[in-house]
Amino acid sequence: MTKQSTSSVAGPSRISLVVNFLGSMRLAVSLLVLLAIASIIGTVLNQQQPYEDYALKFGPFWFDVFRDLGLYNVYRTNWYLAIVGFLVLSTSTCLIRNTPRMVREMREPDMTMTSAYDPLGMANKTEIISSLPMDSATHMVTAVLRGRGYRPKLHDRGDGSMVIIGRKGRYSRIGYILTHAAIIVFCAAALYNADIPVKLAMLVGSTQPENNFHIPLSKVSKAAWLPVGNPAYRGTVTVPEGQSTQVAYELVGNGYLVQPLPFRIMLRRFHVSYYSTGMPKDFISNIVLYNKQGKVLKEANVRVNHPLSYEGVQIFQASFVDGGSLLKMKRYMLNNPSAGAIHQEGRVGQAVDLSGTTYTLKLKNFSLDNVVPAAAIESVPAGDQQHINLGPSFTSIAQSGSGSGAEFKTYMQPISKSGQSYFVQGVRTAFGTPYQYLFIPTGPNGSIGLFMKYLSALQKQATVNSGENNKSYVLNTFRQVIARNAPAMTPDAEAAYFQSAISAILQLKAYPVPFIVTLTGFDHRWAAGLEVTKWPATIVIYWGCAVLVLGIFILFYLPQRRFSVVLRALTEGTEVIIGGTSSRNPYEFTKEFDGLVTRLRSVLKNQDDQKENNDG
């Protein structure tokens, strides 16, 4: 019997302990703090980027640490969803446990003399002894409270005493209910937008991200494809001008999932404008949506913070890159400069075969404008312009069959320094390190052809040099080249060109490849980086925001104020104990309390004086 009794008591106590824990203020505040920290991380650290970008930015050690913590996709990590889920559970527990009591209190106060209505336990309290009988004193107190806007309720305690309770702002409890309900709505919507079904599918293995970013869409594994009716998703896609797509890609770790879209997105035109510093000022994508039959569903201009919306799917302007521009180039061989320039073409994103060498040249990117500070290239700006536009440029990677290579940034237009114009190319042999810049002087026609002829003449002269000192044949060879190819060059121009050419030849000793590629023309094409999202719960979040604002407004501007007055009959007169409290602005309420007490003293005293005068 004893064991049964103990078990029956222990069960409910454990349940009560769990409920009290879930509904505690400490747990709710702790969860909110954790969510705030996670949200700050998700805001400061750019989310869902390729892992290579994070590895380059943070280094191998911190990259592994942040990856294991899930900081590259905070809002869809298991620990973040667990925090949100616990917050929903905690807030729901508070709401379910307290709402019935609050509703009853709003309708009618609990007249049971608990500590909440004990005047001696309130923040403001005082005591008055009146010679009036209890009935008269009760009547006067009730009248004063009603005159101050309170709704007095009388309760006979059965021990000869009377309790009068007056309240203002009884509907302030609605603010508590609304704010808690709004938090539940926010968190539930966040869980819905987190696309939990996809996470469960990945957990059981039916959905698996594709890790190869270089295969065509038709080769992507079926396990990496998400259903068309996926209720929520957030993917990105890059669309070149004049082309279209019907899928978006959602990055997951070091892979991606393919999300089919209910329409086809076509980028008709793209426009970008810049500030004087070269930073993008505005970029706009003219987008057309088509259905499967080719019918136009919607056309709109998409710009930053101005998305296109169609049937619950939103398309945001996120970035822009080169969309496969056609580049026209000239290649000069440093080990055989007399061969002349070799004309080549290629599109950005493709590799160009360099015949006669063991190298291939991958065209990585193309920039139409390159605005840099004038001081960076030691140039004197015109007027008050502190920046110079170096014009078009492209980046490329030269890779040999043996694995060696280098990355280049090649500018199309020559730049001028101290009266001499130069072809400029940035060179680096390790990704992430700063570029080392090569400056080759350009001739009267703006190309490096004259320099290559001088270099070829030097190589030939070096093989037949018979005792002539180096300084003499270098200078004599230069004069012969100028006389044959640029006879109109002035002596000052010759001197400047000679010094620049010698400096360039010295720089070429550390040049990592046996050729130089220049840009002679291009057919530019933009590509827009778009973010495609479907978050059905967003409208719920908007309504939850409205509810939260309303609840906070009620809590701040509709405080609950309570007066509790206990009257006890004395041998001659009545003892009046007055207590008052307010949920907000205690200083203002203290002034109101003092004014009401002063009024009660005056009324009860006046009644005493009137009684004395009548007796007299």
What does the model show?
38% of the residues lie in helices and 31% in strands. The chain is of the alpha+beta class and 616 residues long. The chain has 4 domains: 14-105; 111-169 and 559-607, Sirohaem synthase, central domain (Double Stranded RNA Binding Domain), CATH 3.30.160; 207-231 and 233-323 and 526-534, no CATH class; 326-520, no CATH class. Strands 13, 14, 17, 18, 19, 20 and 21 form a 7-stranded antiparallel β-sheet that branches. A 5-stranded antiparallel β-sheet has the order 1-25-24-3-2, covered by helices on one side. Strands 4-23-10-9 form a 4-stranded antiparallel β-sheet, with no helix packed on it. It is elongated, with a radius of gyration of 41 Å. 25% of the residues are buried. Residues 1-11 and 608-616 have low confidence and may be disordered.
